[in-house]
Amino acid sequence: MKPNTTYGSVCSGIEAATVAWHPLGWVPSWFAEIEPFPAAVLSHHYPAVPNLGDMTTIAAKVRDGTVDAPDVLVGGTPCQAFSVAGLRGGLSDPRGALTIAYVELANAIDTTRSFRGIPPSVIVWENVPGVLSSKDNAFGCFLGALAGEDSELQPPGGKWKNAGCVFGPQRAVAWRVLDAQYFGVAQRRRRVFVVASAREGFDPGEVLFEFEGMRRDDPPPRTSPVPVCLTARGAGSLDDRETYIVEEGGRIRHMTPMENERQQGFPDNYTSIHWRKKTAIECPDGPRYKALGNSMAVPCMRFIATRIDDALITRR
Question: What is the residue range of 123's domain?
């Protein structure tokens, strides 16, 4: 019987990773979330898992042994610094700078694991595709830091592609843009996923890349009628847009929080919690929309973890 894979999650949000990975037997060592509503969702569903709060404080705690150095580190550092819908401050934005703090945490975890004689961790990171075209080459800085290079990496041809890999002195790193609509949910949601590791014999490319006949690039089959969805710029919904549905007869309405949960692959009413003296039934829609919009798509996370599991099992 294989041991349970442990993971630490930063910028945890409402924990798409845990919803995706629990069926695989993966166990969370800790979360790190500072926003009040997502933190309340975590406390509601996972009361036994510590929420460490500010992710920039964790590396020191891993080094001194007060926080576990898990098998996997997962996180989606704030995307607003790189989103085409925002000001795109890149690494100069404090939220973008958390990307470098993420690498520092990964290094602390691997150093601690090395002292204990256990293999390096596997790193999973997610962000918006806009990070690939950030004017300050934020993605090249991130890749260079993860790989262990002395300076940022430059994109071949002047632009980062939607998929690729690098092999540096410290880690092998692969990335790929995945679209949630090809993984069984009813939304177009393209995100960059990065998998990296210094573990001997572990190839991140085997996790993210598929044989030609298995690739998730064809539109999903539509076996039943799908409501027409309209979007308008605004706050508090998926991808920073208000989402509307055009029903039969032409009536236009907002998507409900439950419909947004289904779009992201969460169980119904996952974000319906007791919040600020409101019952779960009374839980306001606004924080639910925002938390879901900032989350990862559960099926994409399950796909990645399943592939990591397969790679680790074959090398144990």
Answer: 6-210+295-314
How large is the C-alpha radius of gyration of the chain? 19
Residues designated catalytic:
79
Residue 98 lies in a domain: yes
- Is 12 in the same domain as 49? yes
Please tell me whether residues 252 and 110 are part of one structural domain. Answer: no
What Å distances lie between residue 19 and 269, 302, 309, CA to CA? 13, 9, 16
| Gap between the Cα atoms of 170 and 289, Å rounded | 39
> Model confidence over 231-271: pLDDT tens digits?
444 434 344 456 667 677 778 888 899 999 999 999 999 99
| Residue 230 burial by Cβ neighbours in a 10 Å radius (0-12, 13-18, 19+) | exposed
CATH assignment at residue 74? 3.40.50.150
In a domain, 223, yes or no: no
Rounded to two decimals, what is the model's pTM? 0.85
Contacts of 262 (CB under 8 A, 6+ apart): 185, 186, 268
